[in-house]
Structures are given as structure tokens and as C-alpha cells.
Amino acid sequence: MQISPSVDFPPQDIKSELDCTDTTQKAITEETKAVFKAVLDHSAMEKILKVANQEPAVPDTFPHYTNFGATEYVYEFSKRWTSGFFSGSVWALCERASKRELPVSFENLVKIARKWQSGMEKEQYNTETHDIGFMIMPSFQRDLDLTGSKPCGDVIIRAAESLLTRWNEAIGCLRSWNTTSTKIYEFTNKDTDFLVIIDNMMNLDLLYSATLLSGDPKYAAIATKHAETTLKYHIRPDNSTYHLIVYDPVTGKRKVGLTHQGYDHGSTWSRGQAWAIYGFATVYKYTKDPKFLDAAKRLTEYFMSRVENGAVYWDFDAPRPCVWDTSAVTIACSGMLLLCQLQGNLEYLPQVTLLMKTCIDGALTNEDGVTILDHATVNNYEHANHRIADHGLVYADYYFLEVGNRLIDLGLA
Ligand code: GLY
């Protein structure tokens, strides 16, 4: 495999000093303070711990989404891309406990987080999916950062090696799925169709971390090349995004842009747009290349232009009335707060306030809920093999907790 030239390293530190000019200070309204206080309410932690202290009915399975009413989780095996988010949520609470006093101690939270995380360790060898970043990083990176655990660093480097097996030099991308199908199309031949989804931007963090840990620039170089290719082919001229691009693995040429979980091939699936915001902000964090900051900002502007009275529907172009996707909200908000941290300002505070207020007012579960939020949507594509809409979802909660932690880091809550 040929490796692209090294990128600029090490990454830019997250700015600790905020540029609190009059304009940014004015963004901190009474409403903002009330919304952010609610985001950090301990009831969110109680919901996570309620599930964390229950044994799954089938051993070695992990919470994914809820049934109607958000009172019971559906569990999946560790090879599912969502499996790392639950231990990641407990680790997000550990991170919070390292910054402020919580009703449960840091040490106890670490014990619970490690119990859930242990079932994920084998996924470091998984070469069948691009989602290994989602599976590994929410837990193992936090364990490393918060406790200095050396074995976690080894897991991250090993997982990055697994991800590199999916690299195609002709295209300049990592392969997302080997094959895929819906009721109206299928791709079953890896040799003729190379599938890349916008979500893949979120797995690049793993590669940058592996370069920092190992000193080997090859992981970061591939991550940056993947981001450059995605910038070229996944973002439409109006800054909306395609979900799935199919490439020719031999010539490297783009064949077609499709949807797999959105309303239509030409529509904008709101979670895909959110992954793009967060993913490009992350690549900017590590590379300092302004074209990635510019992309993240353009994607954010598009996202916000499609928000309706604070609500984010599952696809911005789906006919109304339709269901929300609170996971798109929390992912986008965490990405916007990351942009604030990287720029050292509070540029997106009004947007984050608006969006999180809608979650707080309209999507918190009641006391029987096992998720923090309701009204997320895994996949509502009418031709999907498995449609699941309007429910609790483990990664809507994970990014909700991450938003809270970023608010603490920014001194806002
Ligand atoms: N990464 C798949 C999804 O967002 O549903």
C-alpha cells in the first residue's frame, strides 16, 4: 500500500482561553444558562447508570435502541457499529466526574465503564467494518486520557491497523461497507463497487490518535486523504451532503451518489450532515488546515438553515409531518461546540442553545425511560430493509453527554 505524504503534526491544542468579546458574551442569555443547566442535570446520569447496573439478557450484548416508549433497550453484539457507545457514555460520566463532583465517585464510574468496555476489546481486530473508530474511541481513548492506561493505547493502534486494511489508494478513501442492500438496490461485489458513507468521517479520529501514540505518520496521512476525497465528492455545491458515494475501486472514479438511510438520493439526511460537521471539525483539530474548518462551518450553516423552529427532522427534505432525529441534534451540537473550542470563541452558542432547548423541552424521557432522549431515528428510508423511527438511541445519549462535558470545558455550565 502506498502512503500519502505526512500531514502537519502535532495537532492544534484546543484553546483554553475564550475570546469573550461583547458579542460572544451577549450570546450567554438567561435562556442559555437554563438550557445548559438542564443538559447537566443528574437525571441523565441516573438513566445511564440504571442500564449500566443491569445485566443484558444475552451475555456480551450492548444497548442500541429502545422499543416504543423508550422503556426497554434492544441489545446487539459487539460487532455492531453502535456497541461502543454505551461504555462510551459511562466513560463520558467518568470524564465529567474528573471535572466536577457527581453523586457517584470517579473510581466507581471507572469500574462500571471498564466492565462494559471489556466486551469491546476484541473489536480491535475487526477488519470487516470502517466503524471501528465508533466502537473503540468513546471508551478506550477516554480510559487512556483519564487514567493513563497503556493497554488502551495499544488497543487504539491495533484498531487503526485494522482500519487501514480498508484503504484504497486509487480512490483515496477507506471502504465503509463491503456490501449493502435496500429493497431497490444492492451492491454485492467488492471488486466493482467501493462504498463510502459520510459517517466514515467520524472514524478518522482513531487514525490521528494512532499517529500521536505511535509516532508513525501513516495513519494521519490516510485520514487526511480520506477527508480530502470526501470534501470533493460527498459535499454538494449548496453544502448539503450525500449519504453514500459509490466509487470504482480500480479507476478510483466516482460512480453515483445515493442514500441508504435518508429520504431520497438527492435529499439531505440530517444525521449524515451532523456526522459531516463533527467529522470535518475533528480533521481540522488535527491538521490545522483551514479548508477543513471552512468545510465544517459551511456544513453547519447548511444544517442550521434547515432547522424548523428548533426541530431537526430525520431528513431535511422528507415530506412533513415526519419524525425527528434527536441523534442528529446532539451530534451536530457536539460538533459545533468542538468548533467553538478550536476557534476559542462562542460562535455557535445561539445555535446550540436553540437545538438543545428543543431536546430538553420535547424529547427527554420520563422516569421510566432507559435512554435520556426519545425521538431519535435509526433509519426511515422507505426502501430500507429494516426501518426504525422515533425511539431512544444509545448514540443520541452519548453525544448529549458529550455536549454537557464540552459546556463544562467552555466554562458555560
Ligand atoms: N453510521 C450509521 C448511522 O449513522 O446510522
TrEMBL record:
Pfam families recorded: Glyco_hydro_88
A molecular function GO annotation: chondroitin hydrolase activity
UniProt entry tagged with the keyword Hydrolase: yes
GO biological process, one term: polysaccharide catabolic process
UniProt KW keywords: Hydrolase
Entries under InterPro entries matching the protein: 6-hairpin_glycosidase_sf, 6hp_glycosidase-like_sf, Glyco_hydro_88, UG_Glycosaminoglycan_Hydrolase
Family from the record: Belongs to the glycosyl hydrolase 88 family.
Name the record gives this protein: Unsaturated glucuronyl hydrolase
Gene source species: Umbelopsis vinacea
Organism lineage: Eukaryota, Fungi, Fungi incertae sedis, Mucoromycota, Mucoromycotina
